[in-house]
Amino acid sequence: MTTTTYRTAPGRTIDVGGVTYAYRELGPKGGVPVVFLNHLAATLDNWDPRVVDGFAAKHHVIAINYRGVGSSAGKTRTTVEDMARDAIAVIRALGHDRVDLQGFSLGGMVSQAVVQLDPQLVRKLILTGTGPAGGVGIDKVTRLSLLDTARGLLTFKDPKTYLFFTRTPNGKREAAAFLKRLKERKDDRDKAIAVPAFRAQLKAIHTWGTQKPADLSRVTIPVFIANGDEDRMVPTSNSHDMAKRFTNSELAIYPDAGHGGVFQYHDRFVAQALEFLAK
Questions:
Q1: How confident is the model at residue 202 (pLDDT cuts 50, 70, 90)?
Q2: Are 235 and 243 in contact (CB under 8 A)?
Q3: Quick check: pTM over 0.90?
Q4: What CATH class has 12-278?
């Protein structure tokens, strides 16, 4: 059994096709692992430890860095589909031919592409704070991200304060609590994302937001979709849209919550996700 806390899970690497990918794993080995695919500008240190530990209490969890992000080597991909191909290659190189995916934001887009490229690989799909190809407002993520990054610099706050949470008193409290949790890991922290990698990911998201919508009705595996009711980055309407278009889906929308609703409501989200995976 690997360690059961994300705060102390050792950083690991694997060479796939001449590229070194960074990842962390924890939770009980055996069964179908849950692979976590991360958001724009995120490294392994950006996963809420309460969410990861919650999953790892019951499941083998693997969190993977994209190519060129954090401690992973190589040049960052500029399309969601190429990120998905890399994710598939890493998962199979780790010895898994059947996984569940938990994709947040950009990770949810990559997860959808993984299912379309390699349908037999994925048993169940969890999509959080994300949207479909061609989804409403996804083409505006670049502008919003850059504006709120500048806003964060001017106010000496982490941009996720504005991008992930509402500006209500409750939202502000939850933002502070979330950012504090991200600092719990003191040793063996990941490298911050480089500016060129951030730009490459923005390009990938913009392309995803402007491309032709996929036929989600062809995806027949179970899908759990969760988001806040006031997502500014990937508008919440996309979550409702996906829930209607997937053949077998469940939807959870959290009140007074933004893009990071699953972190704000981590207890509720983890409980619902574990119930979904256990069915």
A1: very high
A2: no
A3: yes
A4: alpha beta
